[in-house]
Write a structure and sequence with these properties.
The protein is mostly helical. Helices cover 30% and strands 4% of the residues. The chain has helices at residues 16-25, 39-42, 49-65, 68-76, 85-89; strands at residues 127-129, 137-139. A hairpin with a 7-residue loop joins strand 1 (127-129) and strand 2 (137-139).
Length: 152
C-alpha cells in the first residue's frame, strides 16, 4: 500500500483537548450506542396526585363559570330597552298597553310577547328570551310588530 506524502494528513493536535477527548472516548463506562429514549418512555406517564391537585381547582372554576345558573343570572340583567336600535326598528314596547294603534295598525288588544310564537320565556315570568333579540330578554307584557300567534 502506498504511503501518503508528508504533510498530506494534518498533524495530530496534542493540546489539552486531545488528552481529554481520548480519555472520554476510551472510558470503560462509555455507552457503545447513543442513549436515545426508548419508545415506551416517550409515552405519557400515569397522572400523579400532584397533577390532579393542580388541575382540579382550575376545572372546578371553569365549571362554575360556565354553569347554567350563572348564565341565567347574566341574561336576567340584560333586558331589552325601547331605545335599542333593533327594538325601534320593530316598534317594540315594553308595555303592550302603551302601543299606539294608529302608528301600528297590526296591533290588536291582547297581543303580548307572552302569547307570541317567538317568545322563549317561561309562562308566568315577567320577562324571557325572544328569537329576534339574541342575548336580550323582552318583557312578557311587551309587543313588537313581528308578533305571531303562538300555536295551540
Amino acid at each position: 500500500m502506498p504511503q501518503a506524502p508528508p504533510g498530506f494528513y494534518p498533524e495530530r493536535h496534542t493540546g489539552d483537548l486531545h488528552g481529554f477527548y481520548s480519555a472520554v472516548m476510551t472510558h470503560p463506562n462509555r455507552p457503545t450506542s447513543p442513549s436515545w429514549p426508548q419508545p415506551a418512555t416517550l409515552a405519557r406517564s400515569a397522572p400523579t396526585r400532584r397533577l390532579w391537585l393542580l388541575t382540579a381547582p382550575a376545572l372546578a372554576l371553569g365549571a362554575w363559570a360556565l354553569s347554567p345558573r350563572r348564565a341565567q343570572a347574566q341574561m336576567a340583567a340584560s333586558l331589552l330597552e325601547e331605545s335599542d336600535p333593533g327594538a325601534q326598528g320593530l316598534a317594540y314596547r315594553a308595555d303592550a298597553a302603551k302601543v299606539d294603534p294608529a302608528k301600528n295598525p297590526t296591533y290588536k288588544p291582547g297581543q303580548t310577547c307572552a302569547n307570541c310564537s317567538l317568545y322563549a320565556g317561561d309562562a308566568g315570568q315577567p320577562q324571557g328570551g325572544c328569537a329576534l333579540f339574541y342575548g336580550k330578554e323582552v318583557a312578557a307584557a311587551g309587543w313588537c310588530n313581528a308578533w305571531e300567534r303562538k300555536p295551540g
